[in-house]
Amino acid sequence: MKTYKPFALLVVAVLILSTLACSISSLIGGTPTASNFYMATDNTGGTSTSTYSANQDFYVFFSVSDIPTGTQFEAKWYALNVSGQDASTPFQTTNYTYESGVSQIYFQLTNNGGWPTGNYKVEVYMNGAKIGEQDFSVQ
Questions:
Q1: pLDDT digits (tens, 9 = 90+) for 36-47
Q2: Are 72 and 127 a contacting pair, CB within 8 Å?
């Protein structure tokens, strides 16, 4: 009678390794993602827009998942066709350090003197890598 001990041991070893791999994956989490970028009229994010008046604050929102605590986010704000502004240089940069349990992030930019009419954009970075951008205008 033949015995298949080596094959049985191999099957058991594969099952154990598969279980360990799944456990480690669930502990580590998935791939960090950011999605659903949009501009909004206020800090609730309830109304999206791409056009602002000169006295409104700018808000960019996005959803995140599987982000490790301490991840650095940065928003770079550009005036694309505003007199006196270099379109390739951000006129303002804002930062946020990710806190556990947050599923939506927003950046706000204010200007007490009002915004010049023109086209703008905001680029969003995660740990130095660009992850999204939004174009908008002031009329």
A1: 999 999 999 999
A2: yes
